Amino acid sequence: MSASIYDFAVNNIQGQNVSLADFKDRVVLIVNTASKCGFTPQYKELEQLHQKYQDQGLVILGFPCNQFGAQEQGDSEEISQFCELNFGVTFPLFEKIEVNGPNTLPLYNYLKSSAKGLLGSEKVKWNFTKFLVNRQGQAVQRFAPTTKPMALEQDILKLL
After folding, report:
1. How far is CA 85 from CA 35, 93, 117, in A?
2. CB of 28 within 8 A of CB of 160?
3. Catalytic annotation, residues
């Protein structure tokens, strides 16, 4: 079992391998995203958090996922353009992943077992589930898709 997110490497939206150790000593908010979801407008608040707190050590990582209602069908370039054009997203985005099932990205297996959901559930229920990671790289809290990003501000500030 991994001790932190720093044990993982993932491909960014340009297809380059990125070690999450690059985000050492930062507070990280990891979100599985989708472009055609009712929660898609949360990109705006995620970007606001990113702009407001990046200089204090917050980084937001977006992981597009097509597992819920097929709401992320585009390729990496389409997803990237959509996020930039519609929401001005400047925080890092990664290649489309799976968050549940046999092809779950190993990072998400770690997140789900470290910060369990309602009633101890590990399964990610929908798009825009959020995992808050402390400066030591440990997932400390999970937030439901319905929780608006700005509602996490106090939890983020405690870790910054």
Report:
1. 12, 14, 32
2. no
3. 37
Q: Count CB neighbours of 88 within 10 A.
A: 12
For 43, what's the count of Cα atoms within 13 Å in the CB-facing half-sphere?
25
Most distant pair of Cα atoms in the chain: their distance: 39
Output the pTM of the full model. 0.96
Q: What is the mean pLDDT of the chain?
A: 95
User: DSSP per residue over 109-151, as a string?
Assistant: HHHHHHS--GGG--S--STT-EEEE-TTS-EEEEE-TTS-GGG
Mean pLDDT confidence for 51-70: 97
For residue 141, report the phi and psi dihedrals to the nearest 5 degrees: -155, 145
Residue 88 DSSP SS3: coil
Tokens, residue 159: 């870790």
CA atoms of 138 and 160, how far apart (whole Å): 14
**CATH number for the domain including 65?**
3.40.30.10
CA distance 125 to 93: 20
73 CB neighbour count, 10 Å cutoff: 13
The number of folded domains in the chain is: 1
Range of the domain at 100: 5-159
